[in-house]
Design a protein that fits this description.
217 residues, alpha/beta, BirA Bifunctional Protein, domain 2, three-stranded mixed sheet, 6 helices, 11 strands, 28% helix, globular
């Protein structure tokens, strides 16, 4: 078990790519205990890591709308995946762990959960690793594969509010309740506070929806 308690938000709200990224960041700002947000995309889009240079990754996006993430990593094509955002506030002991330890614990929990319904799920081995800008063509240590094919990758961001994990999971029939059970001793349904949506709107207007954010590098 990773957390003593985890709130789970199965967010079915249709959002643009900018709104999805803003919602993840706002979630960390408002979380009083760990929250896992699970969401799908109303229309295809491509996100890319904070440190990536736009011109170098544009051709990986296959013509899809592009959005820079607050976290790191390569280019991820969204549309058929389940996207995960795990917000860990500084008040939780897990936030004090090393980034590598947090990443490992999250992905080991996902492996346990996915193994309930899918065979052959495991963490990436050194011989699986490949370099590249496209996330799902470039497995790195602690990513998740099935029969050697990468199905999950993610990245972390630390701030004064805590730690944000963003990950993409490419697998059908994902057991959300099993993920909650694998990551925590107990879990419950999350209801976002009313003031959080205003924060999402503000982050879109001032950050994610601006050209300066997309063209940051």
């Amino acid at each position: 078990m990773f957390f003593s308690h985890l709130d789970i938000w199965e967010d079915a709200t249709a959002r643009s790519a900018a709104e999805q990224m803003a919602c993840d960041e706002a979630l960390l700002e408002h979380a009083v205990r760990p929250v896992l947000r699970c969401y799908e995309w109303s229309s295809p889009a491509a996100t890319f890591g904070y440190a990536q240079r736009l011109e170098k990754i544009r051709h990986f996006a296959a013509g899809l709308p592009l959005m820079r993430r607050w976290t790191g990593g390569g280019v991820v094509l969204h549309g058929d995946d389940l996207t995960l955002a795990l917000a860990i506030p500084t008040s939780d002991p897990v936030a004090g762990m090393t980034s590598m330890s947090i990443y490992r614990e999250i992905h080991e929990g996902l492996v346990r959960a996915l193994s309930v319904t899918h065979g052959g799920v495991r963490l990436v081995l050194p011989e699986d690793c490949r370099e590249g800008a496209a996330c799902f063509q470039s497995p790195v240590p602690l990513d998740i594969v099935v029969d050697g094919i990468k199905i999950c990758g993610g990245a972390l961001r630390r701030s004064k509010a805590g730690v944000l994990y963003q990950g993409s999971l490419r697998l059908r029939n994902i057991p959300i309740a099993a993920i909650g059970a694998a990551l925590s001793k107990e879990h419950a349904k999350f209801s976002p506070p009313g003031k959080m949506e205003g924060n999402v709107v503000s982050l879109v207007e001032k950050k994610y929806g601006t050209g300066s954010w997309i063209n940051l590098r």
